[in-house]
UniProtKB/TrEMBL annotation:
Residues 132-169 are annotated as: Disordered. This is ABC transporter, substrate-binding protein. GO terms for biological process: cell adhesion; metal ion transport. It comes from Aeromicrobium marinum DSM 15272. Keywords: Signal, Transport.
């Protein structure tokens, strides 16, 4: 059964409408905030602006209590489609450090471009090395065309520039991100360099332990395939020798066509896959449809794009450990 596409509305409007509102925000009069370099002046301490939760986690751990860290994506909001207020746009010009990934959040890219600054900008995609995204996310060689309801317009506003931004699901890349944030904080606040370096070293050590847990925990499994709600787990799969089969594309709002849904259903049955993974922040309806049609169960595999009410007391590390447990159970790992 082909899932109905959401109609544009107050909560799920069209990409053109979102881009139009972003342009309006960027050209509107902005609040005047303190100029860059507040840390050097010793007025208000270091300010760090992040665009999504994984970057906020890193910035808070490395900065400790020496900086104010603000995430422009509120808890419970899908970061792909975040819209910025005028105050947030202005903050891209005034924060001491900006941490983001290009081609992940169009509104953020536009705000960074408007800020037009050289210092204090940490674009993590350049730091960690991003994987190419599977724009078609075919299943078993499936092809689709405009006649199948999968036109170019369906993806307008969801272009990730051909790369997959979800690098934080690889702990080793997160370690590289931590070091980049450390360097930016040291540049902004050299007096506290020792603290930033110590905090970063502590976080990197924890991430190395997490990587070791995944390597050992996924070494011997009955299956190495994971069926996921959207194409967010390529780094997890690439690092730990898994095969990801996403139902939707890089953006979870890119719903599958009927042909794609049929192909993923056949794949689950043919490979004897026992679990279809759902996730936080997006509807589980399509994953539930696949599970119901195949007799598979559903379980949560969190892409950690943001925290929800259910995960408010967790952090990146605890959610990653829970993801490991979920994959091990689903794939019969010993």
């Amino acid at each position: 059964m082909v899932p109905m596409r959401r109609e544009a509305g107050p909560m799920h409007d069209s990409p053109r409408a979102r881009l139009a509102r972003t342009a309006a925000v960027l050209t509107a009069p902005l609040l005047v905030l303190p100029a860059c370099g507040a840390a050097a002046d010793g007025d208000d301490g270091v300010t760090v602006l992040t665009s999504a939760y994984p970057f906020t986690f890193v910035a808070e751990r490395v900065a400790g209590d020496l900086a104010t860290v603000e995430n422009v994506t509120a808890p419970g909001v899908d970061p792909h489609d975040v819209e910025l207020t005028g105050r947030q746009v202005a903050a891209f010009g005034s924060a001491d450090v900006i941490v983001y990934t290009e081609s992940f959040q169009p509104a953020v890219d536009a705000a960074v471009e408007q800020a037009d600054r050289d210092a204090g900008v940490v674009e993590l995609g350049e730091v960690v090395g991003l994987l190419e995204g599977d724009e078609e996310h075919d299943h078993e060689g499936e092809e689709h065309s405009d006649e199948e309801g999968h036109s170019d317009e369906d993806h307008e506003g969801h272009d990730h520039g051909g790369v997959d931004p979800h690098f934080w699901l690889d702990p080793s890349r997160m370690a590289s991100a931590a070091e980049a944030v450390r360097d930016a904080l040291v540049s902004a606040d050299a007096d506290n360099a020792d603290t930033y370096q110590a905090n970063a070293a502590s976080l990197v050590a924890e991430l190395e332990t997490l990587d070791e847990d995944y390597t050992a925990g996924l070494a011997t499994c009955e299956r190495r395939s994971i069926v996921t709600s959207h194409e967010a787990f390529a780094y997890l799969a690439d690092t730990y020798d898994l095969q990801q089969y996403p139902i939707a594309g890089l953006n979870p709002s890119d719903e599958p066509t009927g042909a794609q849904l049929a192909a993923i259903t056949d794949l689950v049955e043919d490979q004897g896959i026992t679990t279809v993974f759902t996730e936080e922040l997006v509807s589980a309806a399509i994953a539930d449809t696949v599970a119901s049609a195949t007799g598979a169960r559903t379980a949560t595999l969190d892409p950690i794009e943001g925290l929800s009410d259910e995960t408010a007391d967790d952090d990146y590390l605890t959610i990653m450990e829970r993801n490991l447990d979920a994959v091990r159970e689903a794939n019969g790992c010993s």
